Amino acid sequence: MSKELRVIHAEMLMELAEQHDDVMVLEADLMGSVSTRKFADAFPKSFLHCGIAEANMIGVASGLSAVGKVPFVHSFGCFATRRCYDQIFLAGGYAGQHINIFGSDAGVTAVTNGGTHMPFEDTGLMRLVPNATVVDVSDEHVLRAAMRHAYHRKGVNYIRSTRKEVPALYESEHDIEIGKGNVLNDGETLTIIASGICVHDALEAAEIIENNTDATVAVIDMHTIKPLDTELVVKYAQKTGRVITIENHNIIGGLGDAVASELLSSGVALKQFHKLGVNEQYGQVGSLDYLKDAYGISAERIADFCFSVLADK
């Protein structure tokens, strides 16, 4: 039985703190939302409650890094990035500090918290921080691998995720290498490159397509958006000639732009390339199913778009 990702996040923090005495956890009044209250009780000297002051929290994390600590910072993705971007960029990145940021409720997974809490731009912002790592979590094993990698990799590491439960894609975190994509379904006709919660819908869409046509669809979980697995992207673009990216994020600045840039730089000639995701829109209130459909990233909407792509010879 899979667990909510907020529980996995808290468990990983506990595990890392048990293994390493330099781990520090910082929260912005969201302990109950992300299950870190247990950490605070178990490791009171390794926990700081910074209040609803995210920019200050990043500054504190930078100072802790400067004296040899490894800070893990959490807030909702909108607050963990755009609200304190200057501090991340300067106090963290420019100053050469080691800061690990968990941005929860990524994209439409903010659901009824609504448009003000719905980050569609966080991947784009964090990609622009020099040498940052950006991971979009698709299942609990990706989250585990990303957090372990973040502890060991000095610099700015950003992990975006839902707080809720998602179906398992992998058997173990050992199936995950940060910086390398995973081919979950092989195919010859079309390549879908997805990240985060969109991987599950991409797999469902691929099944719909393969059950209704003679096409075969490759589905890649590109959990690490930066650094991008250029080798895998190029290999499957050359193999199928048709590439569709799908992301729970603005199509400007996210996974789609990262893939397009690499393909263009590599000189890969494609029959078709398309980006599915949020298109010049803000967030809104709604259920997860409603929001995925509204922004065109549900399995049915993805499959319908793919049918139109395949029809265009």
UniProtKB/TrEMBL annotation:
List, alphabetically, the SUPFAM superfamilies matched: Thiamin diphosphate-binding fold (THDP-binding) (SSF52518), TK C-terminal domain-like (SSF52922)
- What keywords appear on the UniProt entry? Thiamine pyrophosphate
Which superkingdom heads the taxonomic lineage of this protein's source? Bacteria
PANTHER family, per the entry: PYRUVATE DEHYDROGENASE E1 COMPONENT, TRANSKETOLASE-LIKE PYRIMIDINE-BINDING DOMAIN-CONTAINING PROTEIN
Name the record gives this protein: Transketolase family protein
Q: Give the InterPro entries listed for this entry.
A: PDH/Transketolase, THDP-binding, Transketo_C/PFOR_II, Transketolase-like_Pyr-bd, Transketolase_C
Q: What is the lineage of its organism?
A: Bacteria, Pseudomonadati, Pseudomonadota, Gammaproteobacteria, Vibrionales
Chain ranges of the Transketolase-like pyrimidine-binding domain: 3-168
Pfam families this protein is in?
Transket_pyr, Transketolase_C
